[in-house]
Inverse folding.
DNA sequence: CCGGATCCGGTTAGATACTG
DNA sequence: CAGTATCTAACCGGATCCGG
């Protein structure tokens, strides 16, 4: 380990040495959101090289923030989990994210649209409890995207498991959600209420009336959606 | 500006792009602590090269976190001040520092002793209100250090201004504080109570009885001293 | 497919010196 | 006081490859 230290006893400096390395804060957000496997983490930080991810995981393990262990029962699969010190980073991530939600210009965020990250985040935050107690299949159609990223299926199983597919799983679709990537992202971030998007025709729902009416309940928004903007 | 972006719309990622660059979190702590001038900031981040400091200041200005302006009345002196967005970073710095205070091993912090940073921090946090309403001169003697860093004088003026000198200002000394750098740092960080250090003979006070008795009131500790450690 | 390791080129940071 | 300039070392991004 090279001496890339700030050489300050101050707890801010000591913490920043490990927390403020490139990608680390974003990676920790993935952990706080619940990811545990190498390739699961990769999906949340797709632009991070696997080599750097591997290095950061080692650094975080050395720092006592995560633990690496074998997946129970599986011979050579590994998982990474937050330690108590790692779980205690949740307020830090929340403070950073709340500040970002409040002060980063809306347009700057909306220049980084990414359907993979959006759908992955939406999947993680679906609340199945207001849904009918059967399998519910919701198809999202991004009308402005090319074929490969255009269609997505959320499958909420009776056991409350949520799957995300980018190829047709073949089930009957209960609700179609037709929109564009920007509108869906604005909704997710809390910039645009669902009702307004529907009024403006930027979001069109077709299918099961109950699922449609309850959209605002089962489609949880970003954890930061409720933080108010102070700038336009 | 190269594209060193995370390319994620998530507010954590957007905020981390600017907040988690090398040195930036430590620099922001300096701002939150009240520094405004280039060389004042340098004193708080002595291991940061002036070139990088200059670049970071420009980055923070571009990000809308600080503002650069001329010092009122002075022709070519400049100052940097937090904007509203910058002041709103205080909870972020506090969250990072509190986590550090709680989870960074004590020994790791105490490997980075630095009398300049310690005295600079102490000076900033002196509370003159419990002191006699006259000039109070306190000499700190680090018995384990060489001549150049051994003696320090805190001068609390009647107008409540606090000066720090590393050369004898020539005033009569009201209180002598004789200790070693590690003990003083432990006290500052909240690891060791003043009373215990005195009992163990690691801190020796000589001079004005009232100043001595009130030490715990005018010597404010680190803002993070009250955060409890969860690890030994 | 999973969980990485290796190699290479470009960018960034550290050290030191210097200037208006 | 408030920064630049310059050179070198460390780090990062991207692509490729590898063993189970």
């Amino acid at each position: 380990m090279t001496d890339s230290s700030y050489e300050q006893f101050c707890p801010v400096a000591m913490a920043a040495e490990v927390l403020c390395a490139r990608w680390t804060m974003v990676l920790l957000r993935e952990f706080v959101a619940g990811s545990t496997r190498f390739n699961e983490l990769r999906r949340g930080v797709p632009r991070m090289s696997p080599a750097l991810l591997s290095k950061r995981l080692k650094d975080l393990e050395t720092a006592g923030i995560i633990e690496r262990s074998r997946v129970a029962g599986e011979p050579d699969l590994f998982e990474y989990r937050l330690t108590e010190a790692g779980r205690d980073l949740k307020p830090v991530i929340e403070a950073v994210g709340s500040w970002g939600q409040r002060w980063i210009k809306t347009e700057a965020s909306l220049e980084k649209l990414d359907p993979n990250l959006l759908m992955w985040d939406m999947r993680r935050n679906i609340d199945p409890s207001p849904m009918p107690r059967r399998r519910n299949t919701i198809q999202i159609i991004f009308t402005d995207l090319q074929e490969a990223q255009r269609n997505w299926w959320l499958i909420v199983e009776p056991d409350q498991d949520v799957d995300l597919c980018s190829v047709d799983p073949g089930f009957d679709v209960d609700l179609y959600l037709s929109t564009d990537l920007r509108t869906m992202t604005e909704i997710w971030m809390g910039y645009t209420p669902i009702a307004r998007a529907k009024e403006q025709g930027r979001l069109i729902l077709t299918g099961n009336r109950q699922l449609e009416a309850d959209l605002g309940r089962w489609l949880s928004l970003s954890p930061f959606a409720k933080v108010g903007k102070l700038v336009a």
Notes: The longest helix of chain B spans residues 90-103. Chain B touches chain A through 58 residues (CB under 8 Å). Chain B has a mean pLDDT of 94.
